[in-house]
Design a protein that fits this description.
The complex is a heterodimer of chains A (about 220) and B (about 190). With about 220 residues, chain A is mostly helical. In chain A, about 70% of the residues lie in helices and about 0% in strands. The chains are: A mainly alpha (about 220), B mainly alpha (about 190).
Amino acid sequence: MTSTEDLIQSLAADAKPVRRLRPPFLRACGWLAVFVAGAGIVTIATGAWPDMLARLKDQRFAVELLATFATGLAAVIAAFYLSLPDRSRFWAILPLPPLALWLLSSGYECYRNWIELGPQGWRLGRSSDCFAFILTMSIPVALALYWALRRAVPLDALRVLIVGGLGVAALSAATLQFYHPFDVTVIDLAVHVTAVVIVIAIMAAVGRAGLGIRRSPIR
Amino acid sequence: MDSETNQLDHEWAVLMAAAQTGDGAAYRRLLTAITPYLRSIAARHHRERADIEDSVQDILLTVHAVRHTYDPARPLKPWLAAIARRRIIDRLRGQGRRRARETFLSTEHETFAAPETNTYEAEPDARALREAVAQLPEGQRQAVTLLKIEEKSLKEASAASGMSIVALKVSTHRAVKSLRKILERGREET
């Protein structure tokens, strides 16, 4: 085994110039801008906006959509901060308040549906479509986020991937609202939550091998 | 943080900023300067000197790999300490895993912990094997003697015995099966 002095010599000899990472907030904003532009183009091209603007007049729906989107924004920003060694771990709780609001607002809607419609409130909506939508849309978004986070070589990749996965799933769920022209039933909500959990789990499981610092060669 | 620590951190931050632009001399000075600091962190978690040094080298390698993530506008020490902590935890976890499945040997250990390794009876018994081979039917005995004991190739064995290659293969397979049976029987009897 080499001595520490030898190691320092060889590392110093390898001191190639490196491109510094920009501040995490700027990187997150850049990534989110690309996402919003992409999602904007798709939703305009598919003519989803007139319906959406009409539905946004319903205050409860507006709150739910905003909370979903805010969860996505907050989780992505948090993931960029968490990917750096010297940033607080408490960034991980940034997406929790909007997440709570999201679950509460859609949960409240389920409850209202149930009271108004009775057993109909439990009907299985077009849940399987929603499920497929969230999962399918999450794949490219997750790949894009993974690619952006990779440059930071996070020391604790799992935490970054879980928070990032939440961001990806929430952004997909927010986009889903453009193509979800009916109120959420209890089953729908359960399906959404399940899809979000699956996205987080897949991202954490698949990404962990590649993201982050490699195990030490020194044993 | 007192002013002396502040001063030190500022110096390190300047050196790291220079290192990020490819200044090898500044980088060497920085790595040399931070090594005692890293060693002091590592010494809080490891007892063995070798472990401390391995941890320090781990941390230095990681610092090298992620040096582009350091923002010179921020203090260097917290960045360094976070990397050091993470690396030490990784090492301790790895050691925990290894200890769970390996037995470390010292001079006091004359033999291994697994009981099987201490039973002399289980050692291959050449005499029993020769006797077992002698009990085999003619074809099987010839095949196993040529191929397994004299270690001839299938072609050579075929030429020597006049048996076809396929017949040799079948006989050897049967012979091994019979030997296993004979030897097991012998072991049960003793």
